[in-house]
User: Fold this.
Amino acid sequence: MNTILGLIVLVLDIIAIVDCVKSSVATGKKVLWIILILILPLIGMILYFLLGKQKKAA
Assistant:
């Protein structure tokens, strides 16, 4: 069970990092978000999707 959860977190972290690299945010902020995601995988990913991802106006 732990292996499956670890794999899920790894896949979601990779998705967050790819999304961060593709974003239009300044390079310095991208590097900081990627470092945060790598150091704190679960918390960093959650924080990125809640705070770091730019929301598009409808």
In short: Residues 2-52 form one domain. The helical segments are 2-22, 27-39, 41-52. Residues 8 and 50 are 18 Å apart (CA to CA). The two ends are 40 Å apart (CA to CA).
